[in-house]
Amino acid sequence: MDSMLLRSFPNINNASSLATTGSYLPNASWHNRKIQKEYNFLRFRWPSLNHHYKSIEGGCTCKKCNIKFVVKATSEKSFESEPQAFDPKSILDSVKNSLDAFYRFSRPHTVIGTALSIISVSLLAVEKISDISPLFFTGVLEAVVAALFMNIYIVGLNQLSDVEIDKINKPYLPLASGEYSFETGVTIVASFSILSFWLGWVVGSWPLFWALFVSFVLGTAYSINVPLLRWKRFAVLAAMCILAVRAVIVQLAFFLHIQTHVYKRPPVFSRSLIFATAFMSFFSVVIALFKDIPDIEGDKVFGIQSFSVRLGILDLCYPS
C-alpha cells in the first residue's frame, strides 16, 4: 500500500533522490514545501509512511511530530476531565443517592414504630414531674439508639434472605434493585448488630441487653434460611415472633430499663403497663395477619405460607 502511494506521488521520490545525491534545483525549496504538505496529509491517513520518510530540510522527524501530537492530545484530555472529577454537584448527588438507598434499606416505618413504642413505654415508668429529667432522656436515648441498631440488623437480614422474593414484592429495595451488592448488605447488617450489642454492654443495663439479645435471636430465626429456622415460612411461628418482640420484649424490657436502671427502683409492673402489653398483644396479631398482604405474589411463588397466602387473600385482591 505504501509503495503504491509513493508511486502516485512521484515528487516524493524525486525529492528523496535530490536529498541523497545533493543535486541542486532552483525551485527545490518550493518543491520541498509542497512535498512536505502532501506528506503531512498522507501521514495522518496512512501512519505506516512514517517508516519510509523523514523531512528533507533537516527538521524534526515524523515520529517526533507524532509524539508532540500525542502529548498535546493527552494534555487536553486531562485538563477537560479534571473539572468533572471535582464537580460538587455530582458529589452532592452521590451523597443524596447513598442516603436514599440506606433510608430504604432501614425500612423507615419499622424504625419509627420501634422508636415510638420505646418512648411511650418509657413514659409509663414516670411517677412524678421531677422524673422528667436529663437522666430520663439519657436513658431513653440509649434504649432507642441501641434498639434502632438492632432493628436495622433484623430488617437487613430479612432483605438478605429475601432478595429473590423482593425482586417481585419490593423491587425498590436496594438489594433487590442492585443498588447494594450482597457483600454490602452483609457488612451493614453485621456492623449494626455489633454496634447494638456494644452499646447495650456499655450502658450496663441488663433489661436493655436482654431485650437486644432476644430480639436478635428471634429476628435471626424469623429470616435466616437454614434448617429448622426461617420461621417466616410458617404462619404461626411468624406470628409468635412478632408477638414476642412487639408485645412482650418492647413493653416489659424497656419499661424495666427505665424503672430499674435509670430510676433505680424495684421492678413493679403497673396496671398501665399490663394494659399496654395486652393491647400490643392484640395489635401484634393484627400485624401478623395483614402485614404480608402486599407480598402475596412473591410469597406464593417461593412457598412462604403466610396468613395472607393461607387465607386465600390472593383471590380477593386479584380476582380471576
From TrEMBL:
It is found in: Plastid, Chloroplast membrane. It is a multi-pass membrane protein. Keywords: Chloroplast, Membrane, Plastid, Transferase, Transit peptide, Transmembrane, Transmembrane helix. The chain crosses the membrane at residues 111-129, 135-160, 180-202, 208-228, 235-256, 268-290. InterPro entries: AtHST-like (IPR044502), UbiA_prenyltransferase (IPR000537), UbiA_sf (IPR044878). Its main location: plastid. Pfam families: UbiA (PF01040). GO terms for molecular function: prenyltransferase activity. GO terms for cellular component: chloroplast membrane. Gene3D superfamilies: UbiA prenyltransferase. NCBIfam families: PRK12887.1 (NF009525). Belongs to the UbiA prenyltransferase family. This is Homogentisate phytyltransferase 1, chloroplastic-like. The gene is VTE2-1.
